[in-house]
């Protein structure tokens, strides 16, 4: 339930959470504004995060928190339809950088990609780490990041650059040492607010919450998790998908076997440090086949399906749309377009 009114003091906020009642979006936004402004103590930040975690975060709360974080961010505009594809981490499987590789494949297939990410938190190599290892220069001023999207077809919003106010929460988050609501803000706070978002969420509890925020914003999104707990579409078993179109969310299940992919254990996707994972990207783009390529094509296929016309709400329709997206992804790799895209991105960021 949501409390009547909107608490505007810390005691009111904590009393609401202790009573296991939801804050409304305005109250959650008020708290986040105090945090982003540096006006909240570490104890208040930690108390807020633990109160949310214990009660269970609501869509309204996440919407208010994310909206305020965007108000404090450096924002950019990228013309035309654009896409973000990202995993929220936390699955502890230490896979190669599937979503980052899939993002480049989507860009090579002709969709402008504005990826939002950071360094590794719970994995061996975050998106920023592997992109640096691939030669992409991430030390760009904010205005230049938007220009790179137009020149290369893909760009990267480095979270620590675009969300400097988030530093005020660092001490409390580090002291807690557990995942909190803030671990799920990345896909919701992309500074460019792309047209489409393909988001992997390992936490089964939070996936529909994240999907609900996109629905309330009226943005098209696909939120998904492997039914083995992966924050990507998995090859080991089925994946759950929350498909967001026109302000509504429908849940579906995606079966890789129905898409013509062989079953592969998640351990086959295990990666290493940034240098290792960067080499895996190069090998996939050079034509290497196997589970990593299959996972990249599958995840890129879903993202590309999201950017196209929705055929309907039947299970068969989703599989047909994703299979068509996979065909585009495979062509982007096999034609050399993905390798060319990566080199162009490196050159543009270093020009």
UniProtKB/TrEMBL annotation:
<comment type="similarity">
    <text>Belongs to the anthranilate phosphoribosyltransferase family.</text>
</comment>
<dbReference type="GO" id="GO:0005829">
    <property type="term" value="C:cytosol"/>
</dbReference>
<feature type="binding site">
    <location>
        <position position="232"/>
    </location>
    <ligand>
        <name>Mg(2+) 1</name>
    </ligand>
</feature>
<keyword id="KW-0822">Tryptophan biosynthesis</keyword>
<dbReference type="InterPro" id="IPR017459">
    <property type="entry name" value="Glycosyl_Trfase_fam3_N_dom"/>
</dbReference>
<feature type="binding site">
    <location>
        <begin position="97"/>
        <end position="100"/>
    </location>
    <ligand>
        <name>5-phospho-alpha-D-ribose 1-diphosphate</name>
    </ligand>
</feature>
<protein>
    <recommendedName>
        <fullName>Anthranilate phosphoribosyltransferase</fullName>
        <ecNumber>2.4.2.18</ecNumber>
    </recommendedName>
</protein>
<dbReference type="GO" id="GO:0000162">
    <property type="term" value="P:L-tryptophan biosynthetic process"/>
</dbReference>
<feature type="binding site">
    <location>
        <position position="118"/>
    </location>
    <ligand>
        <name>anthranilate 1</name>
    </ligand>
</feature>
<dbReference type="InterPro" id="IPR036320">
    <property type="entry name" value="Glycosyl_Trfase_fam3_N_dom_sf"/>
</dbReference>
<feature type="binding site">
    <location>
        <position position="127"/>
    </location>
    <ligand>
        <name>5-phospho-alpha-D-ribose 1-diphosphate</name>
    </ligand>
</feature>
<dbReference type="Pfam" id="PF00591">
    <property type="entry name" value="Glycos_transf_3"/>
</dbReference>
<dbReference type="Pfam" id="PF02885">
    <property type="entry name" value="Glycos_trans_3N"/>
</dbReference>
<comment type="pathway">
    <text>Amino-acid biosynthesis; L-tryptophan biosynthesis; L-tryptophan from chorismate: step 2/5.</text>
</comment>
<feature type="binding site">
    <location>
        <position position="87"/>
    </location>
    <ligand>
        <name>anthranilate 1</name>
    </ligand>
</feature>
<dbReference type="GO" id="GO:0004048">
    <property type="term" value="F:anthranilate phosphoribosyltransferase activity"/>
</dbReference>
<keyword id="KW-0328">Glycosyltransferase</keyword>
<feature type="binding site">
    <location>
        <position position="95"/>
    </location>
    <ligand>
        <name>5-phospho-alpha-D-ribose 1-diphosphate</name>
    </ligand>
</feature>
<feature type="binding site">
    <location>
        <position position="232"/>
    </location>
    <ligand>
        <name>Mg(2+) 2</name>
    </ligand>
</feature>
<feature type="domain" description="Glycosyl transferase family 3">
    <location>
        <begin position="82"/>
        <end position="338"/>
    </location>
</feature>
<comment type="function">
    <text>Catalyzes the transfer of the phosphoribosyl group of 5-phosphorylribose-1-pyrophosphate (PRPP) to anthranilate to yield N-(5'-phosphoribosyl)-anthranilate (PRA).</text>
</comment>
<keyword id="KW-0479">Metal-binding</keyword>
<dbReference type="GO" id="GO:0000287">
    <property type="term" value="F:magnesium ion binding"/>
</dbReference>
<keyword id="KW-0460">Magnesium</keyword>
<keyword id="KW-0057">Aromatic amino acid biosynthesis</keyword>
<feature type="binding site">
    <location>
        <position position="231"/>
    </location>
    <ligand>
        <name>Mg(2+) 2</name>
    </ligand>
</feature>
<dbReference type="InterPro" id="IPR000312">
    <property type="entry name" value="Glycosyl_Trfase_fam3"/>
</dbReference>
<feature type="binding site">
    <location>
        <begin position="115"/>
        <end position="123"/>
    </location>
    <ligand>
        <name>5-phospho-alpha-D-ribose 1-diphosphate</name>
    </ligand>
</feature>
<feature type="binding site">
    <location>
        <position position="173"/>
    </location>
    <ligand>
        <name>anthranilate 2</name>
    </ligand>
</feature>
<comment type="subunit">
    <text>Homodimer.</text>
</comment>
<feature type="binding site">
    <location>
        <position position="87"/>
    </location>
    <ligand>
        <name>5-phospho-alpha-D-ribose 1-diphosphate</name>
    </ligand>
</feature>
<feature type="domain" description="Glycosyl transferase family 3 N-terminal">
    <location>
        <begin position="12"/>
        <end position="73"/>
    </location>
</feature>
<feature type="binding site">
    <location>
        <position position="99"/>
    </location>
    <ligand>
        <name>Mg(2+) 1</name>
    </ligand>
</feature>
<keyword id="KW-0028">Amino-acid biosynthesis</keyword>
<keyword id="KW-0808">Transferase</keyword>
<dbReference type="InterPro" id="IPR035902">
    <property type="entry name" value="Nuc_phospho_transferase"/>
</dbReference>
<comment type="similarity">
    <text>In the C-terminal section; belongs to the anthranilate phosphoribosyltransferase family.</text>
</comment>
<dbReference type="InterPro" id="IPR005940">
    <property type="entry name" value="Anthranilate_Pribosyl_Tfrase"/>
</dbReference>
<feature type="binding site">
    <location>
        <begin position="90"/>
        <end position="91"/>
    </location>
    <ligand>
        <name>5-phospho-alpha-D-ribose 1-diphosphate</name>
    </ligand>
</feature>
């Amino acid at each position: 339930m949501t409390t009547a009114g909107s608490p505007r003091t810390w005691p009111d906020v904590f009393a609401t959470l202790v009573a296991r009642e939801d804050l409304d979006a305005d109250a959650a936004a008020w708290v986040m504004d105090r945090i982003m402004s540096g006006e909240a103590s570490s104890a208040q930040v930690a108390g807020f995060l633990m109160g949310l975690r214990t009660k269970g975060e609501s869509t309204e709360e996440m919407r208010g928190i994310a909206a305020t974080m965007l108000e404090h961010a450096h924002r950019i505009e990228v013309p035309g339809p654009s896409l973000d594809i990202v995993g929220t981490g936390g699955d502890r499987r230490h896979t190669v950088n599937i979503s980052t590789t899939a993002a480049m494949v989507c860009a090579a297939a002709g969709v402008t990609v504005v990826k939002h990410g950071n360094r590794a938190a719970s994995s061996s190599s975050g998106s920023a780490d592997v992109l640096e290892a691939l030669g992409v220069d991430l030390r760009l001023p904010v205005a230049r990041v938007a220009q790179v999207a137009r020149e290369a077809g893909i760009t990267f919003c480095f979270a620590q650059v675009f969300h400097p106010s988030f530093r005020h929460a660092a001490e409390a988050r580090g002291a807690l040492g557990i995942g909190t609501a803030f671990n799920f803000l990345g896909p919701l706070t992309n500074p460019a607010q792309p047209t489409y978002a393909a988001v992997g969420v390992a936490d089964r509890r939070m996936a529909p919450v994240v999907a609900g925020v996109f629905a309330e914003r009226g943005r098209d999104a696909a939120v998904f998790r492997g039914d083995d707990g992966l924050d990507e579409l998995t090859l080991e078993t089925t994946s759950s998908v929350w498909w967001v179109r026109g302000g509504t969310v429908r849940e579906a299940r995606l079966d890789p076997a129905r898409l013509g992919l062989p079953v592969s254990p998640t351990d086959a996707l295990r990666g290493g440090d940034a240098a290792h994972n960067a080499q895996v990207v190069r090998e996939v783009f050079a034509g290497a086949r196997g589970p990593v390529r299959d996972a990249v094509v599958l995840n890129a296929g879903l993202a590309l399906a999201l950017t196209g016309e929705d055929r309907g709400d039947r299970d068969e329709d989703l599989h047909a749309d994703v299979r068509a997206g996979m065909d585009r992804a495979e062509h982007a790799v096999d034609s050399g377009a993905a390798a060319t895209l990566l080199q162009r991105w490196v050159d543009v960021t270093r020009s």
